[in-house]
Amino acid sequence: MTNAGLDISEWARDGVNIVPLQGHRVVGGKVMPIGAAPVAGVARLTYRGGPLIARVRLFGVYWGSAWRAMGRAGGGGPVREVSRQALDTFLGDLAAGAYMDILAEYDAQGATIQRGTFLGSAVVGPDPAARVSDDDIRAMLTQRLADGELPPWDANTLYVVYLPQGTSVEQGGALSCRVFCGYHDAIVDQGGNPSAYYAVLPYPGCAGCAQGMDGMQLSPFDALTTTTSHEVAEAVTDPVPGTGWYDDQNGEIGDICAWQLAMLDSYVVQKEWSNAAGDCVGPAGG
């Protein structure tokens, strides 16, 4: 990737909605090396009039039978294994804990952002191919909703889709672990009305998706919790990308602070941009 940057404006729907590789950030619709792309002036998110998620309801969607046997339950050891059980526990803490308090300053148009809930999770099939597209993910969610395998969507529901190790995701010609580590989006009809919000978390099988800004190496589990927190914060404040809280130069709330780490209880998460503080902040006590 050169200092000219990779232009993602044509494939990022309605705005920048990805977690870039470590060492890169989003500037003006491009993924740029950090050294070549400083924050332009003081970042500031402005509200664009679109929907927000007031009280997020997270539901984990584990695509593929590999999740039935992957890892252990994620006990209290120094390195957690990646497993459905461990990620479910994290999603519960993320939705209902202090992390959501960071986002409270972004209330708008009667939507008061509060702590949310974890609805549960499901392992869904059939097994994904070695490479899946965003269209494949949308089709899977649509079919699983129609089949009743997922809870019905409402304006507070966010489906968090985890891919198994060995499956890469293609979004508009860009591949996970080459350009991005995760993203969020919305399924909308021709009239612009959303019918589902979702985040996509490929398995972090590369160094660029498993390293903090300070060079700290992350385990796959810690990399997933970091990227998940980034995408959940962006989905809450900008569920239909580019229509909620957004900065034209620097992207969404998580883009400005990409790979700046904090702690939520015992979990590694990402800091998020605060207009009030004029800085990247983590959860209280983290």
Largest sheet: 6 strands, mixed
Number of domains: 1
Strand order of the largest sheet: 2-12-13-9-6-7
Q: What characteristic shape results from the CA principal axes? A: globular
What is the arithmetic mean of pLDDT?
87
Number of helices: 3
How many angstroms does the end-to-end distance come to? 34 Å
Which radius of gyration do the C-alpha atoms yield?
17 Å
Based on secondary structure, the structural category is alpha/beta
Order of helices and strands: EEEEEEHEEHEEEEEHEEEEE
Share of helical residues: 10-25%
Poorly predicted segments = 1-16, 32-38
Task: Report the β-strand fraction as a percent range.
Answer: 25-35%
Number of E-state strands: 18
Structure characterization notes:
With 286 residues, this protein is of the alpha/beta class. The longest helix has 18 residues, at 220-237. It has helices at 84-96, 134-146, 220-237; strands at 6-7, 18-20, 24-27, 30-33, 46-47, 57-63, 117-124, 131-133, 157-162, 168-171, 174-175, 180-188, 194-201, 245-246, 261-264, 267-270, 272-274, 279-281. It is globular, with a radius of gyration of 17 Å. The strands form six sheets. It has a six-stranded mixed beta sheet, with helices on both faces. The chain has a three-stranded antiparallel beta sheet with strand order 1-4-3, with no helix packed on it. The model is unreliable at 1-16 and 32-38 (pLDDT under 50). Helices cover 15% and strands 27% of the residues.
